[in-house]
Amino acid sequence: MPQAGWGAAHSALAGLLGALAACFAKLALGADYLREACAAAAAGQGEQAAAAGPCIWLHLVLRAGCVSLVFACNAVMWTFFAKALRYSSSSAAASVTATASNFISSAFLGKLFFGETRALLWWIGISVTLCGLLLLHTASPHSEQQQSEKKDR
Q1: Is the sign of the CA dihedral 21, 22, 26, 29 positive or negative?
Q2: What are the structural domain ranges in the chain?
Q3: Prediction pTM value
Q4: How many helices (H) and strands (E) does the chain have?
Q5: Please, are residues 34 and 59 in contact by the beta-carbon 8 Å criterion?
Q6: What is the DSSP letter of 88?
Q7: Which residues lie closer than 8 Å to 48 by C-beta, 6 or more apart?
Q8: Cα-based angle 10, 68, 88 (whole degrees, multiple of 5)
Q9: What is d(CA 22, CA 113) in angstroms, rounded to the nearest whole number?
Q10: 54-79 tens-digit pLDDT
Q11: How far, in Å, CA of 153 to CA of 28, rounded?
Q12: What digits encode the pLDDT tens for the residues 77-89?
């Protein structure tokens, strides 16, 4: 894979990790998603009253785990973003790729974990962003010969 390909792959992975960190933050600090999930799992087993006590403590442990995962995902995300900056032809390409990947990953993870939906205007906006990203990555970089010709003038 050429250097630019590695930069795009690292940027996309950094965006995904950023979206995962946001999901873990929402689980840890948001509404009682974890408590409701614990109660729903206990109700499915027919132990609704008996599982209420353990769910109180279990969801606190799960929240602490999610906070830890926020920090872990952010640390790994910055590592991949730094690698993307090294391999990309420009910092703009790495930044736009990571941002687009983050938006798309956030949309899918939000739908998967929280049942969120996005408006049509949001999808139009991300489509325009992806078209710009495509132009950014397919534009031919200036060759060394073209740059040396400019210096000679």
Answers
A1: positive
A2: 3-140
A3: 0.76
A4: 6, 0
A5: yes
A6: S
A7: 39, 42
A8: 10
A9: 12
A10: 777 787 888 899 999 999 999 999 99
A11: 60
A12: 999 999 999 998 8
- How many Cβ atoms sit within 10 Å of the Cβ of residue 145? 8
Residue in the structure block whose two tokens are 């209420």: 52
Q: What is the DSSP string of the chain?
A: --HHHHHHHHHHHHHHHHHHHHHHHHHHHSSSHHHHHHHHHHHHTT-HHHHHHHHHHHHHHHHHHHHHHHHHHHHHHHHHHHHHHHHSS-HHHHHHHHHHHHHHHHHHHHHHHH-----HHHHHHHHHHHHHHHHHHHSPPPPHHHHHHHHH-
Return the structure tokens found at 8: 């795009």
Write the CA distances from 151 to 21, 58, 129, 145, integer angstroms. 46, 66, 34, 10
In the structure encoding, which two tokens stand for residue 41, read together?
A: 């799992």
